[in-house]
Amino acid sequence: MAIRPVEWRNGAVVLLDQRLLPTREVYRVCRDYREVVQGIKDMVVRGAPAIGVAAAMGIALAAQKMRDADLQRGFDRVCRLFANSRPTAVNLTWAVDRMRRAYGRHRGRPAEIVREVLRQEAIAIHDEDILANRAMGAHGAKLIPKNATVLTHCNAGALATAGYGTALGIIRAAHESGRRISVLATETRPFLQGARLTAWELKKDRIPVTVITDGAAGSLMQQGRIDCVVVGTDRTAANGDVANKIGTYTHAVLAQRHGIPFYVAAPISSIDLTCRSGRDIPIEERSMREVTHLGEQQLTPTGVRVLNPAFDVTPHQLVTAIVTENGIAEAPFGRSLARLVRGGQPAPRARASAET
After folding, report:
1. Starting at the edge strand that comes first in sequence, how are the strands of the sheet with 27-30 ordered?
2. What are the Cα distances from residue 78, in Å, to 54, 96, 122, 150, 252?
3. Is pLDDT of 38 > 60?
4. Residues 116 and 146 in one domain
5. CA 20 to 30 Å from 183, out of 113, 126, 167, 255?
6. Which domain-ending residue is among 97, 132, 167?
7. 297 CB-near residues (< 8 Å, 6+ apart)
8. Does residue 17 carry a pLDDT above 90?
9. Which of 93, 108, 132 lies at the terminal end of a domain, its last residue?
10. Residue 128 is inside which H or E element, if any?
């Protein structure tokens, strides 16, 4: 994949502005860490793994620009700014904590050494994410039937990660293995990540893709036109409850009703074992303007109240399997996820196989 949503280049953090896709491919060069914070808040960069990578690089950028004395005093403040930029994606706090630990191991050493350690740590987070995505894809591809039509919601592809993707990584790996698959991408209101981003990625990779409205999935399941569902996650609780883009829960309920496997692609960095269940996951509420307007075009009457939760929680009972870079978790997820997070042997493969 040539798509690079976030990159460290010549002492700056470069973000592909995903708000402008698919019609314009614009890269924002951030030379100040506050520009990276704002880019995360404004969804210039989005997707839980990509947000984590951007935050790590933003922290490294802040260290590069700070004077020696300010680095000692200001490092924790910078970390807090990034950690609070978006509340639901656990990859964000995971990456910030990892940068804190790297700083703590070298605190007190000359500032130029600390700066280089932080830069290398951020680049390592980026590179490890791509390797994890490819491993996840290899595990998950085995679950995708031959000649399958796969439904996906939102964008969990290269644009949402350092590259390759989580849910789309599974789809890419299945395609690369020779399976003849096609994808149904929900438009994903109100930010249209599916219509704008998922369709753009898959078209680039020449993987057959059809965009559908969010409300069309149930009818297509009823007609037997969907073989499985593959989605990403912004945070997975210890019991297997999954927070993902709003609408995911609806698709999971419909999939169970029609006997369709529902798979979640979850990097280890997105699994929060300190979070007992989905009830403990904070749900970000975004601006009502994302609903009331499409660009500058107003869609709803002035003064109408709007609710715009960015995520919902899918209970673990609706999840067939959770795919990680360390293997595939099945119910009971409390045990299988903990084993995979610790790096143990992969859990037994989910019931659906490549031959179904």
Report:
1. 6-9, 12-16, 27-30
2. 13, 10, 15, 41, 38
3. yes
4. no
5. 126
6. 132
7. none
8. yes
9. 132
10. helix 111-141
Supply the range of the domain harboring residue 73.
6-132
117 forms beta bridges with none
Supply the DSSP string of 258-312, one letter for each residue.
TT--EEEE--GGGEETT--SGGGS---B--THHHHEETTEE-S-TT-----BSEE
Token readout for 346 is 């992969």
Residues 331 and 202 in one domain: yes
Beta bridge mates, 124: none
Query: By the 8 A CB rule, do 250 and 314 touch?
Result: no
Distances (CA, A) of 66 to 63, 72, 75, 95, 200: 5, 9, 9, 20, 38
**Catalytic residue positions?**
234
Sort residue 5 into left (φ over 0), alpha (ψ -120 to 50) or beta: alpha
State the average pLDDT over residues 95-123.
95
Per-residue pLDDT tens digits for 85-101: 998 878 899 999 999 99
Q: Which two tokens stand for residue 278?
A: 């989905």
Q: CA 48 to CA 6: how far, in whole Å?
A: 12
Dihedral angle computed from the Cα positions of residues 348, 350, 352 and 355, in that order, rounded to the nearest 10 degrees: -30
Which residue type does 335 have? R
Structure tokens at 38: 């704002």
- Alpha-carbon gap, residue 130 to 133, rounded angstroms: 5
Kindly state the average pLDDT of the residues 235-261: 98
* Contact present, 26 and 65 (Cβ < 8 Å): no
Say what the pTM is. Answer: 0.90
Per-residue model confidence (pLDDT) at position 349: 32
Which tokens belong to 159? 């644009």
Spatial CB neighbours of 195, under 8 Å, sequence gap ≥ 6: 185, 187, 188, 211
Indicate if 54 and 145 belong to the same structural domain.
no
Residue 345 clears pLDDT 80, i.e. is over it: no
